[in-house]
Amino acid sequence: MTLTALNALPPEQLTETLSTCCGATAWIEKMKKEFPVKDEDSLLAAAVKHWHACSEQDWKEAFNHHPKIGDLHSLQQKFATTAQWASREQEGTIDASTVILQAFTKGNKLYEDKFDYIFIVCATGKSAPEMLSILTERLKNDPEEEIKIAMHEQEKITAIRLKKLLSV
C-alpha cells in the first residue's frame, strides 16, 4: 500500500489497517488523528510518540493481539488477520524441535503467571533457541522492568509492521 492510499482510507478501514500493526485501541485512535501523514518518517515518529503516551493497560491490550511465541496452532487459528506477518516474524520457530516448543510452552506459562501478560519479543530474525534464551533471561526481571522491555519490543514490532504495510 502506498502512503497516498493509506492516507485516503476511510476511518473504519484505517482503524482495521492500523490494528494489524498494533492492537492497542488508544494507540489506534491517537494515530488516526495524525492522518494524513506527510511521509514514512512522520508516520513512524507519530507511532512512537503515541505508543509512549499509552498506559500500561494499553500496552497489555496490544500484547494480547499476538500469538504466543512458539504456539503455531494459536498463530494459525486465533490470529488469522495478522498470521501472515506473525508467521514470518516467528519463522525461527517453524522448524523448532518438539523439545524447544515444549520449553516455550513451559516458559510462556511461567511468564504469564509472573507478569500477567504474554511474553512479547520482536521475533524478526531470531531463531527459536535465541528467543527461548531471551524468554528465560526475562523471567528473571521484576514486573516494573519487564513491562518496559515488553513495551519496547512491541514498539519494534509496530515499526516493522508499519514499514511492511507501506511496502505491500
Description of the molecule:
It is a single chain. With about 170 residues, the protein is mainly alpha-helical. The protein has 2 domains: about 60 residues, no CATH class; about 90 residues, Oxo-4-hydroxy-4-carboxy-5-ureidoimidazoline decarboxylase (UraD-like, Orthogonal Bundle). Helix content is about 70%, strand content about 0%. Helix 2 crosses helix 3. The protein is elongated and about 45 Å long. It starts with a helix and ends with a helix. The mean pLDDT is about 90.
Total separate domains: 2
| SS-derived structural category | mainly alpha
The termini sit apart by: 5 Å
CATH topology category name of the largest domain: UraD-like
Strand proportion, as a percent range, falls in under 5%
Query: In oligomeric terms, what are we looking at?
Result: single chain
Q: What does the secondary structure layout of this molecule look like, with pairings?
A:
Elements: H1 3-8, H2 11-19, H3 25-32, H4 40-52, H5 56-63, H6 72-77, H7 83-89, H8 91-94, H9 98-115, H10 128-138, H11 143-167
Helix pairs in contact: 2-3, 4-11, 5-11, 9-10
